[in-house]
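User: I'm putting together a small comparison set for a docking exercise, and I want a reference complex before I start. The sequence is below, and the ligand is nicotinamide-adenine-dinucleotide. Could you produce the 3D structure with the ligand included, as structure tokens?
Assistant: Of course. I'll restate your input first, then give the structure tokens for the complex.
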Amino acid sequence: LPELVFHSQLGPSRVWLGRGGLETLCRAALDLPAPRLLLSETRVARALQRQQEELLERVEPQRLILPAGEGAKNSANLLTVLAEMAALGMERGSPLIAWGGGMIGDLGGLAASLWKRGAPLVLVPTTLLAQVDACVGGKTAINFAGLRNAVGSFWPARRVVADLDALASLPREEWLSGFGELLKAAWLSDEAWARELEAGGEELLRADHPALERHVERALRFKIAVAEADEREAGPRALLNLGHTFAHALEAVRGEGLRHGQAVLYGMLAAARAARMAGVAAPAEADEMEGRLRGLLRRLGLLPAPELAALPRAALLKAMAQDKKARDGRLRLVLPERPGRARVEEVDATLAACVWEEWGRLLR
Ligand SMILES: NC(=O)c1ccc[n+]([C@@H]2O[C@H](COP(=O)([O-])OP(=O)(O)OC[C@H]3O[C@@H](n4cnc5c(N)ncnc54)[C@H](O)[C@@H]3O)[C@@H](O)[C@H]2O)c1
């Protein structure tokens, strides 16, 4: 596979994608001066114990293991990482190696961006979601004061080593979560690719699937192209939020247990309905989109979803009004015209209320 490069305004971010990435990772780490810090979390350290031990042996970084899960993406752990970097006496040029899913990537990325105003970041994404999406584009963040991703920076990784073999231990719900973001990328860019993913469905959700590499590569290329065109999210990058405003509301009200990319799949269904209501999608196109998404959700075992259908409408609406992109009773939504094409539309919040009114029927 060719190496992919995200040409950030802050310098090139080189992405290696393949199988058996340890050699590449060791070389990338050794290219940067000691002392080095390996940041990971408990579940990843257990699942990839052998690989991490080999890195420890060959590269001799200090290792810091945080608790697993979104709850660990907080300010206390950010300070823990920075304190470790200080204790190690890390130079400006020595790397932080963030080895884990999007949680570790976001937190480690923020710490790296802050340390001496910017230390090199090596990202080793270990979830499908992190490999198809979070590992490029340069966004870092922690959750703060009850707000998700409230404190963050733009700090692209110097080097990304995405090893598909690392996905072998992923639980099914994490596969589904990554698949949601993968399908979103296809729905934003290429109808034929979207159909291929929908037909693949459940089949695709395993580390040794021969087509996986191609799909991850396409998603990375797509994300890189969008991020390069609009690194600071002033315009077109907002398209990446297809399904996300609805998804965030579902996640906020449903709480733990609904993984992000799964919420995105449901959110895309809601967005298709909203597109019909807003006149962005013609009725025939909207019928087709809803039919395809519902069929896919059913094949993945995500429909019917009585628990999600029963979430209180008022709470969902309130969560949407608190979205970063909401202003004065208006919402900026990404609405699909058809698979492969979407646009950003400012709509009245009452439109979202109408979608949630029909939500129960959509999820049957
Ligand atoms: N920076 C960005 O552009 C960007 C984009 C999308 C999402 N995100 C962020 O990423 C996070 C979500 O990412 P995520 O889903 O990877 O979360 P995560 O890092 O919490 O990983 C999800 C779960 O999978 C486990 N896990 C990770 N790798 C594993 C492996 N190889 N084997 C077994 N278990 C493994 C983790 O312990 C965790 O329980 C959120 O915080 C989100 O805000 C960032």
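The mean pLDDT is 95. The CA atoms of residues 42 and 112 lie 20 Å apart.
User: Thanks, that's exactly what I needed.
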